[in-house]
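Predict fold of Thromboxane-A synthase; 445 aa.
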Amino acid sequence: MMEALGFLKLEAGGPLVTVALLVALLALLKWYSTSAFSRLEELGVPHPRPSPFIGNLTFFRQGFWESQMELRKQYGSLCGYYLGRRMYIVMSKPEMIRQVLVENFSNFSNRAATGLEPKLVANSILFLRDKRWEEIRGVLTPAFSPAKLNEMMPLISQACDLLLDHLKTYAESGAAFDIQRCYCYYTTDLVASVAFGTQVDSRKVPEDPFVESCRRFFAFSIPRPLLVLLLSFPSIMVPLARILPNKNRDELNGFFNKLIRNEIAFRDQQAAEERRRDFLQAVLDARHSARSVGLDNFDFAKEVPSSGKGTADPSQQQPRALSTPLTVDEIVGQAVLFLIAGYEMVANTLSFATYLLATHPDCQKRLLSEVDLFKEKHRAPEYHSLQEGLPYMDMVIAETLRMYPPAFRYVCNPHPALHSGSLQHRSLEPSLVPACDQLCYHICS
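Predicted 3D structure, encoded as tokens:
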């Protein structure tokens, strides 16, 4: 009899256990879906109402530019939002931006990362962190000194000559054409020559392996459903995405690595005076040492009147040994970063500048007169003469960048050791700077 009752209890308990587990799972999901969305409210930062799991992802369905303007219009110059479970604080007042990017830059030197960055860029200065970032920055700073840029002028001129040949063909035909595409050809040729040490003519030879790889690199995008899953369940989806096979990612990584390795091997066999004077060579020359450049010596710190620091020219300081020499992956990372910064951003800036000059013929006439006069004085221009001899050109480019900024937001992570009292400003409460590496300061100019 007792055995029968025990059996009945077991049978009755099976569905109850299942129901209990299901209820517990639903409660856990409900908690997870909203648990991360109370921090902005606790900090008193205005923000759109987040949806479970995805946060404010739907707020940005029109694109980041339009949505950022709408966010600022609705919630002010200091507001916030959530992408998935990650919290962002948006600052758009110049004095607040200055405080984060200049006065407290040492606390915000790391850019925000998702963990899904391809290996090609994960080793670039964009995503290197803390001490290694500072070391690699010390390697790159002298590469953009006037002396180094002047050595690269012949390579830049070659790419410009190809661009002018393409434009001349279109001008003689009198037909309409897409000038942005011409500028993309130009930037591809320029980056290939200066950053990767290879000569291409992307307009005449579009099937060139380098050109095709660049096209594939910029064509990559994450499907929207996958993006939603990544943002909603980062602790699960990000590690999973890292280990899943990705043929396109592996092929691109292999191509650029092989290209750089072959170029390094070739140059190591050359005499020093025979090597190309380009960005890649400047990085290779500093493989084992970097200029002694601290955080307070970088260009943006020079603008702080109260600091009294940052007056030394980093390119003139003595090299110091790197903690570890640059790896091939890190060299590839800096070259690919050059590709990212030089391909679309430069092409877009040139396209907008051309549009503005076409719609303002008086400015176009003034600029053309300056260029003609400069050409009469300098048959073989150097970098220094370009800076001094084309002031109106500099104003045109600066105004173009003001009206059509290629990068309108800057996202950085606070240093993990950042404490709540590190920022003192009437517009920034100390509680807005918790010691949490998930908090990102989003600077929208």
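The CA atoms of residues 36 and 85 lie 6 Å apart.
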